[in-house]
Write a structure and sequence with these properties.
It is a single chain. With about 190 residues, the protein is of the alpha+beta class. It starts with 8 loop residues before the first strand and ends in a 12-residue tail after the last strand. The N terminus and C terminus are likely disordered.
């Protein structure tokens, strides 16, 4: 049997309104795999949106550049690179790379990137939804948000969307039962 304690985050309903804000983050990527830590840029967007309690969606518009939430620790990033190289080697035989038989979703600058599409699925996907509490992302102590380049250097776009409550002064006087309102509730 699992026993859990739940803490509730209480906002100021009377002094709040629901808003949505959308933005596009443009990132020029480098060599693949490349880990672009966009956490600080996403937090700046969130602060500009003035959403103090709600959700933040971080969405990559690309099928070879996923959003990945994990620890920004250099040795871990090397381990992930080695793992992806074993799991989806660049030089392996992928039908997606057979341009003489492939007939859909072709562009003039198409390159052999079957490995990058497959690795994308193992990295977590195109988006992450992050709770917003007290105007801050409720990320764990070591969590960072990455745009991961799996293909080749090029301009990439990340759609950011904040949806939630905005206190009339831009800050929620949130209170956490049993806490100070700055840390996300838990454990569940």
């Amino acid at each position: 049997m699992v026993t859990a304690m739940m803490e509730l985050v209480m906002g100021q309903r009377a002094a709040s309104e629901v808003v949505g804000q959308t933005g596009i983050l443009k990132v020029q990527t480098g060599e693949a795999p490349g880990y672009h830590d966009i956490t600080d840029l996403v937090q700046r967007f969130l602060e500009a949106s003035q959403v103090t309690m709600g959700q933040l969606v971080v969405f990559s518009r690309h099928t070879t550049a996923p959003i990945w939430v994990n620890e920004n620790e250099p040795l871990l990033l090397i381990d992930v690179r080695k793992f992806l190289d074993r799991l989806t080697p660049r030089g392996a035989d992928y039908l997606h790379n057979e341009f003489d038989i492939r007939t859909v979703n072709m562009s003039e600058d198409e390159c052999p990137n079957g490995h990058a599409h497959i690795a994308h699925g193992f990295m977590g996907g195109a988006s992450a939804t992050i709770p917003v509490i007290g105007g801050k992302m409720a990320l764990g102590r070591y969590q960072s948000i990455f745009l991961v380049e799996l293909d080749r250097p090029r301009p990439r776009e990340v759609v950011l969307q904040a949806l939630g409550l905005v206190h009339e002064e831009g800050k929620t006087e949130g209170k956490t039962r049993g806490g100070n309102g700055t840390e996300p509730p838990g454990p569940w």
